[in-house]
Amino acid sequence: MSQDKNKRQIEVFKILQRLKKAKPIDIAREISTVLGIDFKNQAFQRAIHRDLKSLQSAYIVGAHYYTAGGVEILPGEEDKHSNVRVEYYLLGSHLRENTHHRSLLSLGGDAIIHPHIDEDVCFETNYERIPLNSQVLSIVLKGQSYHVWFPQEARPLTIHIGRKSSQVSDVEYRKTVLKTLSPRSFVLLLPSRSISRFLQDKKYGHCYIQYHRNISHSEILDCNSTYGVKASSISSSQILEIFDINSTDETHLIDPFSQFRWAEVETSLCFESSFAIQLMDIHLISSNK
Question: Which CATH number characterizes residue 27's domain?
Answer without folding.
Answer: 1.10.10
